[in-house]
Amino acid sequence: MDNFPVFIDLVENWAWIGWLVLIALFLVIEMLTLDFTFLMLSFGSTVGLVTDLVGLPVWAQAIIAAVAAAAFILFLRPPLLRRLRRGEDPTKSNVDALLDLRGIALQDVTQISGQVKLSNGDTWTARSGSVVAIPQGSPVAITAINGATAIVRPVND
Fold it and tell me: Which residue, of 80, 85, 115, 129, is most buried by count of CB atoms within 10 Å of its CB?
């Protein structure tokens, strides 16, 4: 128990190193995740470092840093994410672009086999998404992609 006050003094005197380590750790994690959460935590740790340099006790530093990090996550992160995603192309691509795409059955489509020609000109192997077979020449729509096979349903337009 005699060493406890010495430990408290050690933590109080060297807390700034802990804040620097947290800032660096959060920045490295942010570089790997790129979702701004750990950037906000590093900002909160920076506030904790500033409170240490002002001379507040460690318990107050931790509380202020936690409140600052929460405020950054709640109020700064959402507009940053919106601004980052503002220029994204809203056009669907890859598998998402194929979902609900229409086509014609080139062969009878069953749960085991079939072939369809899509409206974009692609020809796909296909399977029926239900137990009902889709006859050749029937209009179909893609409901899912399973590997290189389109799962289709009949369309009754």
Answer: 129
